[in-house]
Amino acid sequence: MSRILVVTSGKGGVGKTTTTANLGMALAQRGHKVAVVDADFGLRNLDLLLGLENRIVYTAVEVLAGECRLDQALVRDKRQPNLALLPAAQNRTKDAVTPEQMKKLVGALTKAFHYILIDCPAGIEMGFQNAISPAREAIIVTTPEVAAVRDADRVVGLLEANDVKRMYLVINRLKPAMVEQDMMMSVKDVQEILAIPLLGVVPDDERVIVSTNRGEPLVLSENPSLAAVAFSNIVRRLEGEKVPFLDLTAPQDDLFSRLRRLFRGRSKP
Amino acid sequence: MTSDSSLPAAIPSIVQPAPEVSPVPQVRFKGESGRLLLLLPSETEVVSSAATWTDIWQQLKQRLNAGERFWQPNTPVHLIARDRLLDGRQLQSIADALTEAQLQLKRVYTSRRQTAVAAATTGLSVEQQSPVAHLNQPEESGQALAEPLYIQTTVRSGMEVRHPGTVIILGDVNPGSTIIADGDVLVWGMLRGVVQAGAAGNTRCVIMALRMEPTQLRIADFVARAPEAPPNLYQPEVAYVISDSIRIIRAADFSKERLLPPVSSDIEAEE
Q1: Which of A128, A134, B92, B249 is the S-S candidate for A106 at Cβ 3.0 to 4.6 Å?
Q2: Taking residues A78-94, what's their average pLDDT?
Q3: In this structure, what DSSP letter does residue A73 have?
């Protein structure tokens, strides 16, 4: 049976779309047939991140209106034939579709794809309701910030109430150096509040911005960055593999800082 | 957190102010002779914050998720819809949600004709009550507290639990959430949200938590914030009102000081 996952966060700008693009691409690289669905009607971005903007002819709205077939709207990725994008309409708002219609669309996709990733818009209004209604599992993306974690917590509660009970946590944009100096929430702090299984931690990386602007997901790059490795690991964990978490402190590590950390760890109660 | 010998004597007498603001009623389950009553807030009660179907639906799901463990399979449920307007689809989703929790919706009580018709069409047995009878015996007429609400869940940001009695939570109360109880509030977990005990004005109500890191505590009309500097060691604590302010004390000391009969203070007075 195909897996239907919604990628959501509550707060905007924490990296939902980046996560969707990279996870979708990484899953496709592993040989799965993957459909990524942009549920952000009116503010679509997923096509940009995947570099597929100029190949969109029809969108989900036209499919629902019966103006085209579903397979006409699906955009196959030129680099990775296993990946397809179902674009959202840019000229409509989030009220243009209903949860029932989303369920129908995604239900049709399950016939041809193993994985369906739904990129959820920010907020908890209609767009959110639309995006989560077909989902059976959820990936909660958050950054180690109080506001992002608070919103993620709210979203977890709403998902529970909407019968999406399998949830996984992705912590994005962690700065290990800042955590070490106690200036940023640690992975443990975030987990303590959200209390859902951790799927992975993606370090803050400037290359993410470059890849976003170029429309080339990180996981496609020849010499993968730490963030790209983190995304690949997330996909492996999603499939049930046991992958040890990356030691994000490793690159800028030396004997001194290691010792310092050791002692600091000791001195705390 | 020092012990004060005059403590028991200093407990102020119960203040019972008239409830100016009736608390926003929520979806509630109530056990009654072998069956469960599912009480929906009445439409007239909720004027300011209109409890829409979405709110009701979410509250119902949250209560079901949080209490599942305590219900015997196939317990009959009677839906007390009062003057709430429900259509067939809504009634069906309530029935489905209950079925999922292995409960059976048996009967619908309503004072609205449309709801009664919708329920009958859905295939439920209906009892239509006259709205007047309901107005004459509002549920809040008695002063007695409702039976305690015992829920096993993480109370997450944005959730609000209101209950006209004591609330017991097996789980964490996260920042951004609110608990408002007319009785005590017991949190078997971390307390990080806003919690109010004795919301109807009872200053003798207490708030207990395994780990007290609240955004704000309220008991009756008193309000307190957590200290700016967090303690380096968290342990179970109790918040209560003494000499017109909220005080937090270690749970172990609380039982010694507060729960002993007043006799102990007499002894200390003699010394």
Answers
A1: A134
A2: 91
A3: H
pLDDT band at A75 (very low <50, low <70, confident <90, very high): very high
Please name the amino acid found at residue B240.
Y
Predicted TM-score of the model (pTM): 0.79
Give the whole-angstrom CA distance, residue A55 versus residue A215.
13
B28-140: which CATH topology?
A: Alpha-Beta Plaits (3.30.70)
**Cα–Cα dist B41/B182, whole Å:** 17
Contact yes or no for A142/A154 (Cβ under 8 A): no
Neighbours of A252 (CB within 10 A): 9
The most confident of the ranges B4-8, B18-22, B124-128 is B124-128
ipTM: 0.78
Instruction: Specify the fold of A3-267.
Output: Rossmann fold (3.40.50)
- Per residue in A185-244, pLDDT (tens digit) is 999 999 999 999 999 999 999 999 999 999 999 999 988 899 999 999 999 999 999 999
Chain B residues close to A150, C-beta within 8 Å: 157, 175-176
B144-258 CATH choice from 2.160.20.70, 3.40.30.10, 1.10.260.40, 1.10.10.60 = 2.160.20.70
Cross-strand partners of B239: B207, B248
Domain segments of chain A as ranges: 3-267
Between positions 108 and 167 of A, the ones with CB within 8 A of B are 150-151, 153-154, 156-158, 160-163
Rounded to a whole number, what is the distance in Å from the CA of B215 to chain A's nearest CA? 13
Mark out chain B residues that contact chain A at CB-CB < 8 A.
57-58, 61-62, 65, 154, 156-159, 172, 174-176, 190, 192, 232-233
Check residue B20 and give its pLDDT.
Answer: 40
Residues in chain A: 269
pLDDT digits (tens, 9 = 90+) for B132-187: 544 444 454 456 788 899 999 999 999 999 999 999 999 999 999 999 999 999 99
